[in-house]
Task: structure prediction
Amino acid sequence: MPAKQTYKFSIPHLRILDQDGKVNKKLDPGLSDEVLITLYRRMVLAREADQRMLRLQRQGRLGTFSPSTGQEAAACGPALAMEESDWLVPAFRELGALLMRGVPLHRVLLFWGGFEEGNIFPGVERTLPIAVIVASQIPHAAGVAYTMKYRREPSAVLCFFGDGATSEGDFHEGLNFASVWKAPVVFICQNNQWAISTPLERQMNSETVAQKAVAYGIPGIRVDGNDPLAMYAATHEALERARAGEGPTLIEALTYRLMMHTTADDPSKYRSDEEVQAWKDRDPLRRMRRLLDSRKLWSDTEEEALLAQVKVQIDGEVKIYEQGVRAKPDVLFDHVWAERYPEIEEQRAAFLARQQGGETHG
Amino acid sequence: MFKFKLPDLGEGIHEGEILKWYVQEGEAIAEDAPLVDVETDKAAVTIPSPKAGKVVRLGGPVGDTIEVGAIIAVIDDGTEEATQAEASAPVPDQAPPSPEPEDPVPATPTAPAVAPAAAEAGLVRVGPVPAAPAVRRRARELGIDLHQVPGSGPAGRVSNEDLERFAAGGASPAATPAGPAISPAGIPFFQLDPLPDFASQGPVEREPVRSIRRKVARKMVTSMVVVPHVALMDDVDVTDLEEFRQQRKAASAADEAGARLSLLPFVVKAVTECLVEFPMFNASLDPQREEIITKHFYNIGFAADTPRGLLVPVVHDADSKSIAEISAEITRLALGARAGTLAPAEMQGGTFTITNVGPIAGTRLIPTINYPEVAIIGMGRAEQKVVVRDGEIAIRTILPLTLTFDHRIADGADAARFIRRLGELLSSPLTWLLER
Result:
């Protein structure tokens, strides 16, 4: 077949902080000590909150949820790169990013407890609710980003999703739209190797997720997702580009889900202990701790104090969750639209009437 | 005192098996410390203690199955009672037991006429069987035809469990309410699809098909599936017979039997005479041996409407009984049928059946043959009609009759001759008497 090469591509790979806590000086984003410590503290908070949620679920105090342990760098690093005026469009495994945006933990608990109020983040602007429906949030993010451009606001959107989402049509629609309209959005794929029980290689036939950016004519980059500095740097650069009107970027964060897909899942049925152990050795928290240690910014005493403080904080949030807000059953009608419409109000009335009638037969 | 109830550990979990206790009764436990390992349908999980305190009671020994909502541990956390208002034992989250057929029915009670080999195998499915690819592969490995495997899933989907159960020679599980599409083997296009969900269309009630209803259902389906039915209809002028009958009724008003004298005994007697004359209507077909069995006894059944359902009492040896005797016997049998006091023998051995719905309503009907008999007479309503007699308009009492017969044994011309003869007897009782 007569052919000549018309297009070639390569996918850059970024790692700044290695597994021993050593920083590649040429690529160091130059975060201050204070910022590094804050980042670590937030990652620890995310980890401890996640583990607490798992226990709460096992005790019947929380509904099914998707643990994020092991993916703290991929969630917290990008959040650190955001401006307050930027938008966060999460999937369902970015607890660290939500906490860094200032979302109170009890709101996340309410969400996974099944309460509609968990979709509301009071006092936190420009942060969309958790999106459980896989890839549904990607077109939303493209739309929000286009709105920013349309309104000439210098803000960008950060959109998270998993590797499984890249096999959904919404992913391709969202990326194409954002690319065509040069919408200011950064797509972060948390490639944690498993779409529930489907391993990456059985879910897609591409070498990388990042190369899918080539098809849409946007920059794509593969990042060590357990390296918080690389995640920060790559996102920072992509957000700057987006805000400057240069369109979207696709970032593939290579990471690993150390826990189950959700609490209703048992990963031991489909993956080996060796595989999990290999990724435990690449734990982003350990890597960050080694960095702080090497710069003499942290000690065991401080670690203990941090854990104690985090526990008190989480206890307080759990208390608010368990004693505080209790659902109005009709709250789900409150936020269908920004304003109230007669059609929705009719449905609310019918729903409430049925609720009252329904009590007699449980 | 905190009563810790087993939570739903997955989504829609009903129970779990206790795998391991981390504490003994009487030991202290810290909040969030491991309490017990429980394995559910979905996963084996470690449950941490929701409270700090002394473990007063464990929910059961290792190996026990515990239901969601049941108390898995009681922890003395220093409080008076459980925070939840539940002094009494909690109600476990129970699924209603699946309905078991009370009286299992053999798949093909009377189907040998179709294909003996298929009948032995029972009802099997035709067309693609719903099953997951993994189940299909397993079936191929086991050399099992999925058509043979009863499926317990929606629309009869075969699960791995169904397959293993079948492979092990086990019984099939209780059929789902909307069962699989089924078909007797070998009848193209014949398929019973699952019923629609009527409950979603409006209020419904379900009751099992039992007893007489089930027997009628089986007999009618068998008859309709096995026998090629042909119905021949005729109108019989019973004016003279009716005149005589009304006179008899008036004459013997005090006489119980006379008062009940209906058209039916006359029809029974006339049919019996026709059966002697046309023996192919007093026969049965042996499908296995491909032989026609002609019976030289004349037992006439009649359909009786009873509170328990349709019964068919039999007037035995009608050829040797007078119309008066037949009338008395019909009265006795009908009363016994309604009272439920008939002996089984009084409802067996029929060679021909008559159904008479005319007194209730209906100008005519096409009855279904009472298998394995060959034919049945359906009597419509006898009533006065305007008819033409010798070029004149006349008012006559007309009895509509339908003869439904088995076309394997008799042909249309035979049936026409049979019904013509029957008409002659019923329309000219005096001629009939002369011939006797």
In short: Chain B touches chain A at residues 4-11, 32, 42-50 (CB under 8 Å). Residues 183 and 191 of chain B are 5 Å apart (CA to CA).
